[in-house]
Design a protein that fits this description.
Elements: E1 3-4, E2 17-21, H1 27-40, E3 43-47, H2 53-67, H3 71-74, E4 85-87, E5 106-110, H4 140-165, H5 176-180, E6 183-191, E7 205-208, E8 214-219, E9 225-228, E10 239-240, E11 248-252, H6 254-259, E12 268-271, E13 278-286, E14 292-293, E15 311-312, H7 313-324
Parallel strand pairs: 2-3
Antiparallel strand pairs: 1-2, 3-11, 4-5, 5-6, 6-13, 7-12, 8-11, 8-13, 9-10, 9-12, 14-15
Helix pairs in contact: 1-4, 2-4
Length: 333
């Protein structure tokens, strides 16, 4: 299955994405399709990724159970300084130049579980997770823990294909300092049914590119995600990405663009609400805190020297979150 196209989605412009079958024995075809997708727009589908549809449905059901709780219950697990827990409406502002409010979405962050007292828990984005009380949502934590682990395995398979597409060894991203000890963050998302209006600066999620290596996104059937393949175009052209049941939509992050010396590019995307509730599940895959990201050897030459200086990933990511999230002090008022 090389690409997925839907001929009409109402009158809305939509895009055509390559579709990569992770169960395919033809690795050369998978590498070729992925490379073309990364050069075209930085977005593609992956199917037959090993997570069953039954379990995916269960994760969405559990996500809805949390977001259906009254606000006073959700606030009990409010996002902390480690970016674990609940993020209320407007908590995130992704495109301050055009948005009049923060995003019209609420979310829930779940990271890599590191016990309190472990020296690693002192690092940003590492530490114990924040969980709803088991008597409020029985089985919720177990479902999310399992999904976090299974999604990371999918991400590692995709990363191996990306490595081959960049003429690197298959296991390049498997190193301990990259995906051996990653900052991997699961984020449940709920758009409440607000109708977006770009002319008034109202968005489900403002235009942005993701911060890290790759993002895996599972969505329900409600249209909302848009991508802009050429962010420098005037005017920008936005196209919807059709949902594909059972698939992950995968997109490249800014760090991979930096790593590859802009051979592969991260892509602007946003979410427009159409008055319907919408649920999605994002899984952000980042290198470890101590990973030093510098131009890949296969992506530089005398004619194409490195465009970016080396950067330590933990410092970079902390700054990106600080730039886009509300200061926690506002919730104490």
């Amino acid at each position: 299955m090389e690409n997925y196209e839907q001929s009409k989605i109402g009158s809305k412009a939509h895009t055509v994405l390559h579709c990569i079958d992770l169960s395919s024995p033809d690795i050369h075809q998978s590498v070729s399709l992925l490379k073309q997708a990364c050069l075209d727009c930085g977005f593609f589908y992956v199917i037959n990724h090993g997570i069953s549809q039954e379990f995916m449905d269960e994760v969405f059901t559990q996500s809805k159970r949390f977001f259906n709780l009254p606000l006073n219950e959700k606030i009990k697990v409010l996002r902390n300084e480690k970016h674990r827990g609940y993020t209320p409406l407007h908590d995130e502002l992704l495109d301050p130049d055009t948005q009049v409010h923060g995003d019209y979405k609420e979310g829930y962050y779940i990271g890599v579980e590191v016990p309190e007292g472990d020296p690693e828990s002192e690092k940003p984005f590492y530490g114990p997770n924040v969980w709803p009380a088991p008597d409020i949502l029985p089985g919720w934590r177990e479902t999310m823990d399992r999904f976090h682990q299974e999604a990371l395995e999918v991400a590692k398979v995709v990363a191996r294909i990306i490595a081959l597409a960049l003429d690197l060894n298959t296991d390049f991203f498997d190193k301990p300092e990259i995906l051996g000890e990653p900052i991997a963050t699961l984020r449940l998302l709920h758009y409440e049914g607000q109708t977006s209006d770009p002319s008034k600066g109202i968005y489900g999620a403002g235009a942005h590119s993701d911060f890290g290596l790759i993002t895996l996104l599972a969505t329900d059937e409600v249209l909302g995600l848009q991508i802009c393949k050429d962010k420098d175009a005037k005017p920008q052209i936005w196209e919807y990405v059709p949902p594909l049941k059972g698939a992950f939509i995968v997109n490249l992050g800014d760090m991979l663009e930096r790593w590859s010396n802009c051979v592969f590019k991260s892509t602007l995307h946003r979410v427009l609400g159409n008055g319907r509730e919408r649920y999605s599940i994002a899984y952000f895959v980042e290198p470890s805190h101590d990973c030093v990201v510098e131009c890949l050897p296969t992506c530089k030459s005398e004619k194409n020297p490195p465009k970016f200086p080396p950067v330590k990933y933990g410092s970079y990511l902390s700054q990106r979150y600080k730039d886009t999230h509300a200061d926690l002090s506002i919730y104490k008022k």
